[in-house]
Amino acid sequence: EVQLVESGGGLVQPGGSLRLTCTASGFDFSTYTMTWLRQIPGKASEWVSSINPKGTIATYTDSVKGRFTLSRDNAKSTLYLQMNSLKSEDTAVYYCGYAANRGQGTQVTVSS
User: How many CB atoms lie within 10 A of CB 93?
Assistant: First the structure.
């Protein structure tokens, strides 16, 4: 059974940092491009970042470039999203996923 479990979300002030973690199981993690999406209730989900299977190439949506860093540890089947200089507009539920699968999400709230 495929499982994707996100963690690390929370409430942070503008300018603060969070690191999201996605722990994967039930599939060969090291062979898939992994992705983070985010969604505000009532709106369509937004692609945030992806990383290739080897972890050598990460791509980002323009709004997070220079602030977010995506990495992975294939030995641990774990994906990380380091989020710095957070803004209120980063507030959303963040999901990790691959293909058509995604986890249950973790809430990130940026507010003073």
Answer: 18
pLDDT at 79: 98
Q: How far apart are CA 34 and CA 49, in angstroms?
A: 8
**78-107: pLDDT as tens digits:** 999 999 999 999 999 999 999 889 999 999
**Tokens encoding 89:** 């507009």
For residue 51, give the nearest of 38, 36, 67 by alpha carbon. Answer: 36
CA distance 89 to 25: 31
Instruction: Report yes or no: 20 and 75 within 8 Å, Cβ to Cβ.
Output: no
Residue with tokens 């990380």: 80
Q: What is the three-class DSSP state of 64?
A: helix
For residues 61 and 70, the answer to whether their CB atoms sit within 8 Å is no
